[in-house]
Structures are given as C-alpha cells and as structure tokens.
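Running this now, will post back.
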Amino acid sequence: MWQQLHGVMGLWLLLAVGLALLSGVLRSARFKGWLGERLVRRWLAQGLDPQHYHALHDLTLRLPDGSTTQIDHVVVSVHGVFVLETKHLQGWIFGAERQQEWTQTFYRHRVRFQNPLRQNWRHLKALETLLDVPLAHLHSVVVLTGTAQFKTAMPAQVVQGAAVVPYVRSFNAQLLAPEAVQRILQQLDAQRLAPTRATHRAHVAHLRQRHAQAEGASPDSTPFSATVPATATATATATPPAPAPAPAAAPRPPRPLADAVEATTPGRTEPVLHPEPVPTTPQATAPCPRCAAPLVARSVSRDDGAWLHFWRCQRFPECRHMQPRTVQVLPLEE
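Update: finished.
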C-alpha cells in the first residue's frame, strides 16, 4: 500500500516538475522568437507565389568588419528586397517611427525595448553593402506576431500577423530585373553562414561585445593624446600656453539649422555645426502611381547622422506607396 502511494506521489511530482519546465520554456524569449519566425515563414509560404517571391529565412551574414548580422526573413522579387524583422509581443505598444525605444505595457509591467525599425535599418545597410543594391530597392518590414496592440499611431512599415502578405504584394513597381533577382539569391546563398547553434552563439557573442563597447566608450574615457599621431606627440607637448581670450563678440543671428553639435576639435574653438539638409523640391511633380493622390515629403534620420528623404502618399495609411526623393544641401553661411 505504501509503495503504491509513494509511486503515485512520485508521478505527480514528476508531472508538476515537467509542467513547470514546460511553462518556463513557453514563456522564454527564445521560444517566443522561434514561434514568431515559424508563423511568418508559414504565412509567406501560403500567401506568396514561389515563382515570383523567393523567401529566405534565418540569414546570418558576415560584415566587412568581421562582425555578423542576423536577419529573420528576406523576400526577393522584381519589386525589391523585403527585409522582415519579427517581434512576438503582447500587451500594449507605445512608440513612434523615429523613437529610439518603444514601450510595452503588459498588465502592470512596463518594458522598454529597442525600436525594431532602427534594428532593421542596420540589416538594410548591411544588405546594401553586401549585395551592392540601392537602398531604395530595399523595403523594411516589422511583423508583429503576438497579440500586441498599438496604442499610438502604428508606423507605416509595421504590420500585424498575416497582414504581412498583402503588404508585400502591395508593391507593384518593378525595381529589379529577373537577372538581378537571381544574382541576389546566389549572393545570399553563398555568403550566409550555416544556420547552426555554433553560428547563433558566435553572433550573440558579437552582439554582447558590441554592446559592451558601446556602453563602455565615453567622450572622457579616451585621452586626447590617443587621437594624435605618434610623430606629432613631441610637438603637441611643447605647444606654448594659449593666449588670453579675446573679448566676447556679438551673438550671431540664428541659422536655419535643425541640429548643432559641439565637438572639441584641435585648433578650433567654435562649435562644429551639422545642418539638416534643406530640400529644394518640397512638392512632388507627379501624383501617387497607385491611387493618384498627392505625394508629401518625408524625412527619416539614420543612425549615422545622415537623412533619408522620400515621398509618401497623402492617403497614408490607406495607401502605403513610398519612393525615394533627392534633395540639395545648401552650404552654411560663414
């Protein structure tokens, strides 16, 4: 009798431990990411014609500087290269297209995470370099696979669930020739690393090293002598003391600049100004090719400080047409 009772208790204990382990696995970020990528892979396979859309999944590519970048999905067609970043989220999402971080609210918990559009921008820049493809032919798409809901205006390049298929098919303009599509597919197949655990671990190690360097680097952590060539060290140490400062000059009139950044440059005492490019064509000469509505000018700040300019349909988000826009940068007035 006691042996049977101990046996039943042991089975219940094993069952409880197994359920606890299963619950931990299902709630882990790695499993949620894997589930989201599987869902997107199934939606693409069911909704896109494989003769016209070629989907690649879990791409790990090595960059020229030796680091790696991992892309969830890439869809190549004559309408461009679609770069998909998958996020399996729940709760409420607060965030804008240009914000550095978004906020996820789930019950009483708030979590801030990196804007996936900014994360996917690095993927676009990597493909632009590796494939030698113009940036205008690369389309960034963020796919939300969970039950998350945007409580702010959802950015144009963010879609939810299976809506990724009609979003990809909404691009009708032919940007690439069939020969270029085959060339891109061959390049991706030749340059991708094997999708193994060793590749994933190495990529995670690269990410941690990059984040550690980004957090540890500060303007005051690097001595000024490290930026001076070795041949100029003696001259720099023997420099006579600086003369007395001149009387303060009258303030300059304000300049039409979007941003002013002060930088301590040797031999220069006034700030170094980085202006935002000023467009010379604020109005489009042609309407939207999809719905004939007017096009409006939009600009997005990139990670490297430059600006990406494009035209977007005035009927957004009903119509999501976008096309590149060239601008002329006006020189600074001295």
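The first strand starts at residue 54 and ends at 62. More later if anyone needs it.
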